[in-house]
Amino acid sequence: MRIGFGYDVHRFAEGRDLWLGGIKIPYHKGLLGHSDADVVIHAICDALLGAVALGDIGTHFPDTDSKYRGIDSKILLTETMKLVSKKGFAIQNIDTTIAIQVPKIAPYIEMMRSTLCVLLNIDIDQISIKATTTERLGFEGREEGVSAYAVVLLG
Ligand code: MG
Q1: Residue 122 CA, ligand 1 centroid: distance in Å
Q2: What's the CA-to-centroid distance between 76 and ligand 1, angstroms?
Q3: Per-residue pLDDT for 81 more than 90?
Q4: To which H or E segment does residue 23 belong?
Q5: Cα 44 to ligand 1 centroid, rounded to whole Å
Q6: Among 9, 47, 46, 57, which residue's Cα sits nearest to residue 31?
Q7: Cα 35 to averaged position of ligand 1 atoms, centre (Å)
Q8: What is the mean pLDDT of the chain?
Q9: CA of 57 to the centre of ligand 1 (A)
Q10: Domains plus CATH for the chain?
Q11: Would you state the pLDDT for residue 143?
Q12: Residues lining ligand 1 (ion), CB within 5 A?
């Protein structure tokens, strides 16, 4: 068994789409990043890579490489999962928390879970996604950005 932890932050910016957990969420701002800036998928990728001690998302998909500009993070997740499988591990479960003040993302959580479980080839009850505000404290609370935490157990 191996455990992995991932954490990521992206800031809000005008003129960007908001992608979280593989789902495009209607909002007047999105997250800024070299890729589509899906902070949830990035935290999961880092947890997966951490569990097999293969560095982090920046090691494998550097933001200096133009081939990753604007890339759909679902592709990064699929590529990351291939590395995990090659190491002989499978996902037991994933637990994720998104710290976000606005917009409310509760209506989209089930869609995120069903999207990600298909990509990862796991059952829906093996992936948990939770969201919390930060009670208006910190950068998430000031609506400046979004953070995500992920823990994964491999076996
Ligand atoms: Mg990121």
Answers
A1: 23
A2: 11
A3: yes
A4: strand 23-25
A5: 10
A6: 9
A7: 8
A8: 97
A9: 8
A10: 2-154 (3.30.1330.50)
A11: 98
A12: 8, 42
Question: Do 47 and 116 form a contact (C-beta atoms < 8 A)?
Answer: no
59-72 pLDDT per residue, tens: 999 988 898 999 99
Gap from CA of 137 to ligand 1 centroid (Å) = 21
Structure confidence at residue 29 as a pLDDT band (50, 70, 90): very high
CA pair distance 23, 21, nearest whole angstrom = 6
Range with lowest mean pLDDT among 22-26, 62-66, 108-112, 131-135: 62-66
Average pLDDT over residues 96-116: 98
Distance 65 CA to ligand 1 centre (A): 14
Centre of ligand 1 to C-alpha 121, Å, is 22
pTM of the model as a whole: 0.97
Residue 95 · residue 153 · CB < 8 Å: no
**Between helices 73-86 and 109-120, what is the axis angle to 10°?**
40
DSSP letters along 88-153, please? T--EEEEEEEEE-SSS--GGGHHHHHHHHHHHHT--GGGEEEEEE--TT-HHHHTTSEEEEEEEEE
